[in-house]
Amino acid sequence: MTDELKTENDPMEQDQANGEKDSRNATEESNTQELGQDTIDKDFHTDDAISEESSSEQPDSEPAPEPTPEEQIASLKDQLLRKAAEMDNMRKRQQKERIVVFEQAQAAAIEAFLPVNDDLLRTLQAIEPSEDTASIREGIELVAEKFQGVLQKYGVEAITEKGVPFDVNLHEALMRQPGDEGVPSNQVLEVLENGYKLGERVIRHAKVIVSE
Question: Under DSSP, is residue 163 helix (H, G, I), strand (E, B) or coil?
């Protein structure tokens, strides 16, 4: 009898257990759906906040105002003045370059003729005055004077001074020797070969003897 009652009650307990299980599953599913919805809402609100922040950071871009006719004229005048200044600077630079090239060519040509002048001067010093050599000496002096005149015409100046301080920019010391009493050291005692300069440019240094 007891076994029969127990058997009859088992289906009822089983139905009750199944109902509780279904209720728990429904509750869990409802919680899962609510959690998913909360996550979606949070993501949506986060995206809205980022979009609003980006929009607030971007400044309002307004088109630049067009320049007035007066501003356009002033801009054109400034450009013209700049171009004129550039052209003037270029013209001056080219003029300086031409002058430098001309001076270099002139100095090179004059330097090539200096040995001829040196030979003429040495010849005059070597000829002893006499009746036999008077006419020869006179002819050589005439040629040497003409040569000196050509050099002066082109602004060539001879470096021939003695008794002046030695200047490395003008002189080339070939030897040193004791000077007379009272002569200071580094004094030009003798000029062995004349130097020449064209303006401020030294064409050839004077070869000199310097005091010790």
Answer: coil
